[in-house]
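Hallway conversation turned thread

IA: we were arguing at lunch whether anyone had actually written out Putative membrane protein end to end. Turns out nobody had. So, for the record, here is the sequence (132 residues) and right after it the structure tokens. Reply here if something looks off.
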Amino acid sequence: MSRFIVRLIINAVALWLTTLIVAGVSVVPFGDGDTTAVVLTYLLVALIFGVVNGVIGNLIRIVAFPLYILTLGLIALIVNGLLLLLVAWISSLIGFGLEVDGFWWGVLGAIVLGLISWLIGIVLKPLVGKTR
């Protein structure tokens, strides 16, 4: 359970940094926008992203496996951008959360989010490894 929480926090921090770096990706907090609301919004969006990526993302990767081989994995950029757009759509249904300005902003945001999450994961690998 604690590994899940650490991964959730890593994804939330990576999402926060992505919104600072990529102009077309932003997060709209719920409520009056105080610090607690902003943190909870990032955690909620990171949770939605984890569920979408874990369930739908894995299903797409299994079904589209021949396309991954054919394109040497470049289709993953498109799939990850679409998954980020899906997270933005789901969070818009609840009235707050992730906003992506377009498909290519989604692709760029997914690339930056993946790189930042990977880098934070490398730095915190001893912490994540100890929580098993």
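OS: looked through it. The chain has a mean pLDDT of 91.
IA: good, adding that to the notes. The chain is about 75% helix and 5% strand.
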